[in-house]
Please model this.
Amino acid sequence: MTRVEMRSMNRTLAALLMTCVLSPALSQATPRAGGAPVTFSVMDRTRTVANSWYGDPPYTTTYPYVEQLLRVSVAQRIKRFDWMLEASQNDVFDVPTTSVSTVTAQGQLGLGGTYYAADGGNTLPAAVSFRQGFLRYHGEKPGQMARVGRFEVFDGAETATKNAGIAWLQTNRISQRLIGNFGFSNGQRSFDGIDGHYGKGSWDIMAMAGRVTQGVFNMNANAELNVDLQYLAYTKHDFREHLVWRVFSIGYHDGRTGLTKTDNRALGVRQTDHENIRIGTYGADALATIPAGAGSLDLLFWGVVQNGSWGLLNQHSGAVTVEGGYRLMKVASMPWLRGGFFRSTGDHNATDNQHNTFFQILPTPRIYARFPFYNLMNNRDGFVEIVDNPTKRLEIRSDLHFLQLTSNTDLWYGGGGAYDNLAFGYTGRPANLHNSLSTMFDISTDYQLTSSLAVNTYYAHSSGKSVEGAIYSSGKTANFGYLELVYKWGVPQRKGGAK
Model:
């Protein structure tokens, strides 16, 4: 390790130590008895990251950095109306300066390189952002509301369920595949627009229209982008919460015509394509849990088709996933073994008038690529995972993924969609006529230490295959890990505090 890397590591560890010392003390804080006229909430997330990208000398591929996100909100309910204002402070410390390769195919060498590139070469990017600000009206009956302003949207999470297994699958295997706040990133994402729900009992209709904000890897998340979205979903709960299904459609428009699109066409061809992107996505999903013997069987389906225009090209694409598992309900830790297969379309001809690569829109990609060196575009993913809860406060999860590219004439894609006016939002590396991407193993722990403080850890190892070998000749393995502290505190609005 060089002296520069050693100094960077020391600063990173010092920041982590300070957080470890302060967070337990903060977690002892208690809300004022009786509440307040408004609800006041604080969330502080500090994450120390260690990254070791595929070998690429002389660039820095092994490095630490620290992310710190502070979100502060105030909200109030007044009869049938409620409102919220929320701001965030986004900081990244010790971003590496030599982790973006000048070789286009190698690109940004991990998320540290991505933060450096997205924030103008700043090694300590920081900004205050207006995260949410909305007014919401509640109808006479539950399930009826309308909201206008700036807010966050999570597709697949329109309704809540009392079935714990379904709830876990909604959060970890359905929600935010296509629309999310990219919550793992430090800049995150919001939408300016209007949304509403209309439902009764077991069903819900949600509609939303809005424009996406800047953010994600750009710490300044205030400005709007010329990217708009329309979303409509119908969700139904059946068989006493043992089945939840949804049908939905999404309209997407990207008017940032000055940016070069990321696809498998030659660079010169892409640079002359200044037409808008307009894509329609139509899909359905279903989650079911079935009591079986000493446990519970779960089944999951999710699928979409897409059409429209990718600039000058016609868009025709799709994706599907099928998953299943079995959980031992009578064992104290309730171990859960699951597996499944995902496949999305890729493009097989870079010179025709068709674009057949599945487009992931504006997701939180890290939910489905926990080591975020890939996403769901031009992807085939067979996986097995085990989830265990040794205590009510601790969840341990481990995944094993076998990753391939659907088309070896398309790209190896990464990223999670539009986040500023200088970058397209998705990156792509050439497949070089190879399909085999990686075997990836990971393990995570999520521990709720107190009611206010959570401690989360993660480690992943990628054994790169022929795709990485053709790009990174010096090393085909990569590692990624972090230690994360999440502190939450709040004062609730007292009853009768607002008339």
Q: What stands out?
A: The first strand starts at residue 39 and ends at 52. The domain at 3-491 is CATH 2.40.160.100 (Porin). The chain has five helices and 21 strands.
